[in-house]
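Sat 14:20. Reprocessing the chain from the morning session after the first attempt stalled halfway. Input below, unchanged.
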Amino acid sequence: MAHADREADGSTHKPIADLTDPLRGELVALAGRLTRQGIILTVGGGYGLVLKLHPLGEQVNNPARSYGSNHAFDIYTTIALVTEPEWDEMMNLRDQYAGTTSVARARELRTELFGELPSLGFIRMREYAVAAGIHINPERFGDIREDLRAILEA
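Finished this time. Tokens:
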């Protein structure tokens, strides 16, 4: 996963949230590590996924933002590289934050963007990989879909 302090496009230190917006403020609170400017330094695991689903949902139809394909690919790499301890932590966090607005919206986005094969989230994931010269085995998409469901559905 590209760390939030260095996005996939090479830019650095982008503020991800207007802390006056309740949903975005909640996302920032879930991420945990902030500078005084409200910039997330590192994000990983399940709530890295929550943080990536939100901008993907906002950008998925926006050509000026590369259709959010970098966020879709970050979702793929996060799930592909998760360790067993990280998986267990994601399950604990899922249970702890299941009732929050940001996680509820992430569940909606998961259903909308990754609910079926193929779906727009998987198309954006593949577009990023092709543009970057990275091979993704499309047979893994079913596993990714099931893992996202497990991570977000209590």
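The radius of gyration is 14 Å.
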